[in-house]
From TrEMBL:
This is Uncharacterized protein. It comes from the Eukaryota. It comes from Sphagnurus paluster.
Length: 61
């Protein structure tokens, strides 16, 4: 399992990579964590855990 705090760090790292490389979230996730299978498997959990957070924060843009 992955903590909420770690999930947000991972999520931020993936988003930054996606933005820089003009990739979608899942592609960026695979590129950032391609060598870390455990993290990659956790990304599904991360997406669930930050979904509420993301929808709240995106309304402020």
């Amino acid at each position: 399992p992955i903590s909420g705090h770690e999930a947000l760090q991972v999520d931020a790292r993936i988003k930054a990579h996606a933005q820089k490389q003009d990739l979608d979230y899942k592609t960026a996730a695979r590129q950032v964590y391609h060598s870390d299978i455990a993290k990659l498997e956790a990304i599904g959990e991360i997406e669930k855990s930050v979904c509420g957070f993301r929808s709240v924060s995106s309304q402020n843009l």
